[in-house]
Design brief:
This protein is an alpha/beta fold and 309 residues long. The chain has ten helices and 14 strands. Strands 5, 8, 9, 10, 11, 12, 13 and 14 form an eight-stranded mixed sheet that branches. Helix 5 runs parallel beside helix 6. The longest helix is centred in the middle third of the chain and has 20 residues. It binds zinc ion (ZN). Zinc ion (ZN) binds next to loops.
């Protein structure tokens, strides 16, 4: 540090306060110091290296859907504590209370109806700030209701997955959600409606092994962790060395589990194109759609979509 920054009583405080104030951030991807506002402006993606930071569900939804078009549904469904489970001194009910306070949400899955580039769709988005977006009965139930909404409204379903797996505090009730949600996907399939999954970091465990892996089209964010069990567990169990980049989005794409890797800034346009391609019955919605302009708040007229799927 240059001498002119010294004070008679020693060195001046480093501008480290700016780092702790959140003005600067050492990027997890490139390890460069990046201006925090630049990351935020770039949808929580590092402008240097393209590292995708995790993003909360409501912020992500805002980035994806047409302005003002998201109507949240089933917001009051939340976890119960039938097993009266506790970890240490904290009961499951207390854990849920803490998660609610931290995230401002009632559960790890946010559901609703929205428009993306003018096309109406049912949209679900998981939130890793809520008990690592683990799947318990409430998440399973919300997913099934979202599927039902898509079928009743004859619109495509988009699911943005992120999860640490099944919620262990609900034991077998959490594991049961895998079968329940997989069956809901069967229903949307039988209804002839497209189901698009966007896998984000991390998509793992019971969610990976059920609805997050059953999409007609599966998209992933760059370098997202996607897999059932962790690499170390697999290496230990089978006594093998796994290749570099194992269980990252690119690896899953190269092995046929993911159709396309799409960056966050490109996601909205990509989904819009996909929806227009896959959901021709929603075309009528586009008659009143003008890109670049903000939509009038909450187009409620659903009649345009009540056509044959
Ligand atoms: Zn970076």
């Amino acid at each position: 540090m240059a001498f002119f920054t010294r004070t008679p009583f020693g060195r001046k405080k480093r501008p480290q306060s700016a780092v702790s104030d959140g003005l600067w951030k050492k990027c997890d991807g490139c390890k460069q110091t990046v201006y925090q506002a630049d990351i935020e402006e770039n949808m929580q993606v590092c402008p240097n290296c393209g590292h995708h930071y995790r993003i909360q569900s409501l912020a992500r939804i805002e980035l994806l859907v047409d302005s003002g078009s998201f109507e949240m549904t089933h917001a009051n469904i939340t976890a119960d504590d039938p097993l009266e489970f506790s970890v240490g001194k904290e009961t499951y009910a207390e854990r849920i209370g803490r998660a609610r306070k931290q995230s401002g949400l009632n559960e790890a899955l946010v559901t609703g109806m929205a428009r993306i580039e003018g096309v109406r769709c049912a949209l679900g988005c998981m939130d890793s700030t809520f008990v690592m977006a683990s799947m318990g009965s409430a998440v399973g139930e919300k997913f099934c209701r979202l599927v039902k909404d898509a079928i009743v409204n004859k619109v495509p379903l988009i699911m943005i997955s992120a999860s640490g797996g099944a919620r262990m505090q609900e034991g077998i009730l959490a594991l049961m959600q895998m079968a329940k949600t997989a069956d809901a996907v069967r229903q949307i399939n039988e209804a002839g409606l497209p189901y698009i999954v966007v896998q984000t970091d991390p998509t793992s465990g019971g969610v990976f092994a059920s609805f997050a892996n059953l999409g007609d089209v599966t998209i992933a964010e760059p370098k997202a962790y996607i897999g059932f069990a962790g690499a170390r567990l697999i290496e230990g169990a089978f006594g093998i060395k796994l290749p570099e980049g194992f269980q990252r989005a690119e690896y899953q794409r190269d092995n046929g589990f993911v159709d396309e890797i799409v960056t966050r800034p490109e996601m909205r346009a990509y989904l819009g194109k996909l929806l227009r391609y896959l959901a021709p019955s929603a075309d009528k919605d586009l008659e009143n759609y003008t890109p670049e302009k903000e939509e009038p708040a909450m187009a409620t007229a659903a009649s345009g979509t009540e056509e044959e799927a």
